[in-house]
Amino acid sequence: MPSRNKTAQFHVLDAFLIFIPVSIILYYLHVPHLISFIAVSAAIMGISHIIIEATGIVAQRVSTTISALINASFGNAIEFFIAVFALRQGLIDMVKASMVGSIIINVLLLIGLSMFFGGLKYKEQRFNKDSAGVSSTMLIIVVVGLVLPSMYNMVQGKPAPAMSLAVSVVLGIVYILGLIYTLVTHKHLFVVEREAPPPSTFRPWALRTAVIFLICGIGLAGFESNLLVNTITPLITDVGLTQRFVGLVLIAFLTNIPEHVSAVGFARQNNMTLSLEIGMSSALQIALFVVPVLVLLSTALTGTALDLVFGPFSLVALVMTAMIANYISADGVCHWLEGAQLISVYVLIAIAFYFI
Hints:
Elements: H1 2-9, H2 19-28, H3 33-60, H4 64-74, H5 77-88, H6 92-121, E1 125-126, H7 129-156, H8 161-185, H9 207-239, H10 243-255, H11 257-268, H12 272-302, H13 312-328, E2 333-334, H14 336-355
Antiparallel strand pairs: 1-2
């Protein structure tokens, strides 16, 4: 038993917490931007892991309604902080790309890696297709909501901020209705994927300790997110990368590493349902919670309303992601080749954004 608790208390991503003071020192010493960016990125990976774990411990000890609110508020906190600081610096294209990137990376890469590594251990894995079906339908609604303002802009030649605001309100309402469906009226369909992992996978923290770590983690996440945006802005110019590539690939990948590690771990334990739940829930939280909040707050942050107008490549990526999510949820069975196919689609999208 002691060895189990020791394993539960330490995770490989905890080692990245050492980069918190390192990143601060390097930033204020004005070292080359690339070195500072790497250090800040490593610190954020460690912080995001602590936030996720503390959130999970707190959520287990409260009602399902409050649990849903906690997960929605803190599950994608770092993406939200980075987007806020980026908006204040006028990096609107990067913010939009990071939102799209977080959606497709959770559906394609996270689920793909889970299916691939889980499939290397098990010939076939099964998951709750009812849960996956609801999530894939919600993702289609997201695509419809994000495509319409973009289509209006293409036809009329100008964005419609009021339309983006209205779409954001509808998406937020759909998210709330989805929570009511999964946690209240039809929670019996989602018992499997919301079942708690074995106790040995959790740290032996009391509720008070978890809350303290969560608050400290959120504060550090906000501080490090500001440093990240300040280092990545000159880095974009120095390296010659576009805001779209940085947002869709680098930022999205960086802020979702802990979810990827957890999802692959559950897949290797033959709990593919939970792996899919992690990926789909994170993607939907970004699309239905973070995006509407950013649109509503953008005027106060920048003086200009954030519109939901995306380029054709972003729209194609979102449509393909929704189609694939709908396909993989149909039969409730997956294998390693299906995972490799999802990974390949994500890599192709990343390559395309590197060249545009």
